[in-house]
Amino acid sequence: QVQLVESGGGFVHVEDSLRLSCTASRFTVSDRVMGWFRQAPGKGREIVASMSRDGRVTYYADSVKGRFTMFKDNAKNIMFLEMKFLKPEDTADYYCAARDSEFDVASANMYDYSYWGQGTQVTISS
Questions:
Q1: How far is the C-alpha of 41 from the C-alpha of 33, rounded, in Å?
Q2: pLDDT tens readout for residues 50-92
Q3: Which residues, at least 6 apart from 120, have a Cβ–Cβ distance to it below 8 Å?
Q4: What gap in Å lies between CA 92 and CA 63, rounded to an integer?
Q5: How far apart are CA 107 and CA 122, in angstroms?
Q6: What phi and psi, each to the nearest 5 degrees, are found at residue 112?
C-alpha cells in the first residue's frame, strides 16, 4: 500500500519561511508525478505545485509562484515544499499526493491523484 506522510507544518509569522516534507513508502518519488495541494478553512482543495515524473517540469499556482519551490531528494525518497515570504492567505492544511505510476505529466487536477497524505497544518499569523 502506497503511503505518504507530510511533516513540517506549524505556526509562523508573515514573511517567515517553512519547509514541508512528504515521505513516501512502498514507491519511489522519482517514479511518480507528485503534487502539493492545500485546503484553507471553509474552502476547497487547491493545487500548490506539481512536478512531472522526470522532474523537469514543475507547475506552480499563480498565488505561490516565486515564493514556493517544490523539489525531491531521490536518495532519501522525500518530496519537499520550500515556502518563503509566507502570507496569511497561505494558511491551510497542506497535502502531498501522487499519481498512478503510468502517468508522467504534472497535473493541477486533484482528481488525477490516487494517493494522498494525511495533511500538515500551516498557520501564518499577521
A1: 27
A2: 999 999 999 999 999 999 999 999 899 999 999 999 999 999 9
A3: 6, 7, 8, 9, 20, 93, 94
A4: 13
A5: 23
A6: -80, -10
